[in-house]
Amino acid sequence: MVAAHTLIAIVVVVLLIIRFKVDPVISLVLGSVYLGLATGVGLGGTIEAITIGFGEIMIEVGLLIGFGVLIGALMQSTGAFTRLVRVLVHKVGAHRLPYSMALLLSMIMPSIYVDVQVVLAAPVARSAAPALGKRGIPLMASAIGTGIFSGYVFVVPGLAAISITGLMGIPLGNWLLFGLVLGPLTAVLTTFVMKMMLRTTYWKPESDEDEPLATEFAEVAVGEGQAESESGSAGTVGSAGAGDNGGTGTGGATPDGGAESEQSNARELPLFVLFLPILVPLLLIGFGAFAGLFGFANPVIEFFGDANIALFIGLLGAYILSRATDGNETTGDAMQSGFSTTGEILLITGIGGSLGAVIGASGLDQVLEDLFTANENMPTIAIILLAWFVAAVLHLAIGSERVKYFVCGAFGVSDL
C-alpha cells in the first residue's frame, strides 16, 4: 500500500502542476500531507518530516542556490553571456551553435542555478534559431535543456553533483574527473539525437510552437551584421518564460535588459574578465577536489575549495565587476531581482525536499530496497533500468517543473 499511496501522491502533484496550473509549492505540500497521512506517518510525524526535509535540503544546497542566482543576475547585467554567444557564432558558425551551447552550459555554467541559465541562454539562442531552419527553435531549446541538466548532474559545482557526492560518500575529485567527460558527452549526444528526431514528423511547428508576440522577445544580434534591438531581450524573456508558473523575476536583472548591457562599460572589458566570477569558483573547487584525491589537502585548501565559499568568492567578484562597470544603481537592481528570485526557488526546492522526506518516512525506501534485492540473479542492466525508472518517477514529482515552463515560454513552445 505504501507504493500505491506514493504513486497516487506523485500523480496528484504532477496533475495539479501540469494540468490545473496549481503553484508547485501548494501542489508539493498537498502531496506531502496526503502521503504522510495515508501511509500512517501520522499528523505529528508528517509535520516533522516536512520541516526536517525542508531544512536538510537547505543545508545541502541553500547557499549554493542563492549565490548561483545572484551571480547569474549580476552577469546578466553586464551582458557577458550575450557577448560569449556572439563569439561562438563567429568562430563555429550558427549551425554548430546547438552543440557549442550544450558544451558551454554543461562545462562552464553549472555554478549558476538552472533557471537562471535558461534566462541567460534563451534570448540569444532563440535569435539564432531561424538560421537553423524551421525546426531551429526545438533544436536550440533541447540543446539548452540537455546542456543545463548534464552540467547540473555530472559537473561540479552543479547542485545535483554536489548533493550526490555528499549523500553517497563519493570523493569529489573522482566525480569531477568522470563528470567533466560524461557531462559534455551526454549533452552533445543528446543534442545530436534530438536533431535526428527533428528530421522526422515528430515535431510539428504549426501545433507545437506558439505564435510569438512582436513585443515578447527582442532580437539579439548573434551574427555579423544583425541589428541590436533597443528594447533589449534579457528582461523580457525572463518575465515571459516564467509566465506559466507565476513568474520568477530572474529575467529582470536589469530594467533595460540587453540595451543596458550594450551601454555598459563592461563592453570595454575582455570577455575572460567578465567570466571570472564563474571560472574562479570552478578552479577553487577543482583544486580542492584534486587536493583531496591526491592527498595534499590542508585546512586552507579545504576552506577555499568548499563549494559554498568558492561560489561566494565568485559572487563577490561579480558584484565588484558590476559596481565598477555599471554603477551602484544597476548593480542594486540586479541584486534585488536576484533576491526576489532566490526566495521562490529556495521555497520550491525546500518543499521538494519535504516530499522526499515524507516518502522516506512512509517506508518506501524499505519497499524499494526489498524490490532491488528480491532477486539476486537479476541482470545488472535490469537493476540499472529499474533504478532509472524509479528515479525518473520520483523526479517527476519532486523535481523542478519551473525549468520546463521557462523553456516553453522562452522559446514560444506550446506547454507540454
From TrEMBL:
The keyword Lyase does not apply. The chain crosses the membrane at residues 32-54, 61-81, 175-194, 271-297, 303-321, 342-361, 381-398. Residues 227-262 are annotated as: Disordered. Residues 238-255 have a biased composition (Gly residues). PANTHER family: GNT FAMILY GLUCONATE TRANSPORTER (PTHR30354), PERMEASE (PTHR30354:SF11). This is Gluconate transporter. Residues 228-237 have a biased composition (Low complexity). Keywords: Membrane, Transmembrane, Transmembrane helix. Coiled coil: none annotated.
